[in-house]
Design a protein that fits this description.
By secondary structure, the chain is α/β, with parallel strands linked by helices. 30% of the residues lie in helices and 25% in strands. It has three domains: 215 residues, FAD/NAD(P)-binding domain (3-Layer(bba) Sandwich); 111 residues, FAD/NAD(P)-binding domain; 111 residues, Enolase-like, domain 1, CATH 3.30.390.30. The mean pLDDT is 97. The chain binds flavin-adenine dinucleotide and adenosine monophosphate.
C-alpha cells in the first residue's frame, strides 16, 4: 500500500516550503520531498534561495559592504580604523553558518506545522502518484489528491565558458572563493552578475562585466538603469555593454576570454576567476514520467494557467519552474495561492505588483510598470522624480546617490510604477507596493505624513512631484 497524502510538494525552495506549510496550516496532510544534500550528505531544505541564492549572496554582500565601509568610508566620519584586512575563509564560514541556521529553521517550521519532510527525489507518475527515491536509494510509491511541483531552476551553462569550478564558476562557485581574485571576469551584467561582481569588487578584485546586450538592465526603467550604471561604474565596476563572449581558454590558474566588442572587433581579456551569470533555466530533470500528463512550454517551463494549474488534473506548479520572474517571493506567493485553492479558498495573485530588487549599494528596486512599458502600452502617465541628494537623512548618512521615480496615470493619478536607486530602496519600494495594492493615487502618497528625517521622504516627494508639488526641489511642471 502506498502512503496517501492530501498534498505532496516536490521541492522545498521558497515556493515549495511555503506551499507545504500553508497547506498543513489549512489542515491538509502534507509531505514535502527535497533532494538537496549538504556537504556531509545530509538532506537540507530551502532550495536555491537559502543554500546558494538570496541568503548566502546577501551575507557576502553585507560582509563586503562592512569591509568597504571600514576601509574607505569611515574616515570621512572622522573614524580611523588602521589597516583593514579581510579573512575570506572566515567570511565564507559566517555565510555557511547563516545558511545552516536558515535551512535548519525550515526543518523546525515543518515539524511545528506537521509537514512530513522526506529527503530524496520525487518523480510524478500518472494519476497523482509519486515515486520517491530516498537518499539511501530505497524506492517507494506515494499518492496524493494534489501534487505541487516546485523543482526550481539551475544556472544556464554556455558551451563557450564551461564551468570547471576552479577558474570558471557559476553563481554557486562565486559564493565559495577562498581568496580575493585579483582580476575577476563576470559574463552577464544582470541581477546576479552585478551582486556577485559587487561583492568581490568591494574586497579588492578588478571586476570586468561583459554583457551581450546593448542596454544595461534592459528590463528596468531605463532612467534608473542609467543612473545605476553611473553609480556602479564610479565604484569601480567595469561594465562593458554589447560585448558577447565567444570563447574561453583556461591556462593554468587563469582564463583568457575572447569576446566581440561594441564595434564587432574581437578582444581578449585575462582573468584569475570567471563567473558565468547568464541567467537561470527551469529544472525538471527526472521530475516527470512520460505519462504524467504535465506539459512543458517551448522554454522548458512547466505550462500553467494564472492559478498555477498544470495540464494534469490535481497537479500544480509554482516558482522558478513556471512562467514569470524568477524571484523567491513570487514563488512563495504562488505557493500560498495554490495551497489555499486546494483547501477550497479562492485567492488570486496580483502578478502586476511584484517588487524586484538588486542588492548592490545603493540598492535598485522597482515595482509596477516602467516608463518604457507605459509608452509601449500607449498609457497616458505623469512622472515624478526626486533625488536623494535633496533628502537630509541621505546627505547625513553619506547615502545621497540615486533617486525615486514615480509613475502615475495622467487622468486618474493612480500609481502605476515606482523605480528607485538609492539607500534602502528594497524597503522603500515595498511601501509603494502596498499603496499600489490599495489602488492609491500619487496624491494619496503625497498627502501621507512621512517621518522626518527618513530616506522614505524621497518617496513622498516623488509622489508630490508627479503633480508638480514637490517641496524640496524646483518642479518641472507646476500645478496649483
Ligand atoms: P528553488 O529554490 O530552486 O528550489 C527548488 C528545490 O527543488 C531545490 O531544493 C531542488 O533540490 C528541489 N528539487 C528539484 N527537483 C526535485 C525532485 N525531483 N525531487 C526532490 N527535490 C527536487 N530571488 C529573490 O527574490 N531575491 C534575491 O535576492 C535573490 N538572490 C539570488 C541570488 C543568487 C546568487 C541566485 C542564484 C538566485 C537568487 N534569487 C533571488 C532567485 C531565487 O533564489 C529563486 O527565485 C528561488 O530560489 C526559486 O524558488 P523555487 O522554490 O521555485 O526553486
Ligand atoms: P539575468 O537574466 O538577469 O541573470 O542576466 C543574464 C545576462 O547575461 C543577460 O543580460 C544576458 O544578456 C547576458 N548574456 C547571456 N549570454 C551572454 C554572453 N555570451 N556574453 C555576454 N553576456 C551574455
Amino acid at each position: 500500500m502506498s502512503e496517501k497524502y492530501d498534498v505532496i510538494v516536490i521541492g522545498s525552495g521558497p515556493a515549495g516550503y511555503v506551499a507545504a506549510i500553508r497547506a498543513a496550516q489549512l489542515g491538509l496532510k502534507t509531505a514535502c520531498i527535497e533532494k538537496w544534500q549538504d556537504s556531509a550528505g545530509k538532506g537540507v531544505n530551502g532550495g536555491t534561495c537559502l543554500n546558494v541564492g538570496c541568503i548566502p549572496s546577501k551575507a557576502l554582500l553585507d560582509s563586503s559592504h562592512k569591509y568597504h565601509d571600514a576601509k574607505d568610508a569611515m574616515s570621512g566620519h572622522g573614524i580611523s580604523t588602521g589597516t583593514v584586512t579581510i579573512d575570506v575563509p572566515a567570511m565564507i564560514k559566517r555565510k555557511d553558518k547563516i545558511v545552516k541556521q536558515m535551512s535548519g529553521g525550515i526543518a523546525g517550521l515543518f515539524k511545528a506545522n506537521k509537514v512530513s519532510s522526506l529527503y530524496g527525489t520525487g518523480k510524478l507518475l500518472a494519476g497523482r502518484k509519486v515515486e520517491f527515491t530516498a537518499l539511501d536509494g530505497a524506492v517507494s510509491e506515494l499518492e496524493a489528491d494534489n501534487v505541487i511541483l516546485a523543482s526550481g531552476s539551475v544556472p544556464v551553462a554556455i558551451p563557450m565558458a564551461p564551468v570547471d569550478n576552479e577558474v570558471i564558476v557559476d553563481s554557486t562557485g562565486a559564493l565559495e572563493f577562498d581568496s580575493v581574485p585579483e582580476r575577476l571576469g563576470v559574463i552577464g551584467a544582470g541581477v546576479i552578475g552585478l551582486e556577485l561582481g559587487s561583492v568581490w569588487s568591494r574586497l579588492g578584485s578588478k571586476v570586468v562585466c561583459l554583457e551581450a546586450m546593448d542596454s544595461f538592465l534592459a528590463m528596468m526603467d531605463q532612467q534608473i538603469a542609467k543612473e545605476t550604471k553611473k553609480i556602479l561604474t564610479k565604484q569601480g565596476l567595469d561594465i562593458r555593454l554589447s560585448c558577447r563572449v565567444t570563447g574561453t581558454e583556461v591556462k593554468g590558474k587563469e582564463v583568457v576570454v575572447t569576446y566581440t566588442d561594441v564595434d564587432g572587433k574581437e578582444q581578449t581579456e585575462t582573468f584569475d576567476k570567471l563567473i558565468v551569470c547568464v541567467g537561470r533555466r527551469p529544472f525538471t530533470e527526472g521530475l516527470l514520467s512520460g505519462d504524467c500528463g504535465v506539459n512543458l512550454d517551448e522554454r522548458g517551463l512547466i505550462y500553467v494557467n494564472d492559478l498555477c494549474s498544470t495540464s494534469a488534473p490535481g497537479v500544480w506548479a509554482i516558482g522558478d519552474v513556471v512562467r514569470g520572474p524568477m524571484l523567491a517571493h513570487k514563488g512563495s506567493e504562488e505557493g500560498v495561492m495554490v495551497a489555499e485553492r486546494i483547501a477550497g479558498q479562492k485567492p488570486l495573485l496580483n502578478y502586476d505588483i511584484i517588487p524586484n530588487v538588486i542588492y548592490t549599494h545603493p540598492e535598485v528596486a522597482s515595482v509596477g510598470k516602467t516608463e518604457e512599458q507605459l509608452k509601449a502600452d500607449g498609457e497616458p502617465y505623469n512622472v515624478g522624480v526626486f533625488p536623494f541628494v535633496a533628502i537630509g537623512r541621505a546627505v547625513a548618512a553619506d547615502e545621497a546617490d540615486g533617486m525615486v521615480k514615480m509613475l502615475a496615470h495622467a487622468e486618474t493619478d493612480r500609481v502605476l510604477g515606482c523605480h528607485i536607486v538609492g539607500p534602502s530602496a528594497s524597503d522603500l519600494v515595498q511601501s509603494v507596493a502596498i499603496a499600489m495594492e490599495f489602488g492609491s493615487s500619487a496624491e494619496d502618497i503625497g498627502m501621507t505624513v512621512f517621518g522626518h528625517p527618513t530616506f522614505s521622504e524621497a518617496v513622498k516627494e516623488a509622489a508630490l512631484a508627479v503633480n508638480g508639488h514637490a517641496i524640496h526641489m524646483p518642479n518641472r511642471k507646476r500645478k496649483k
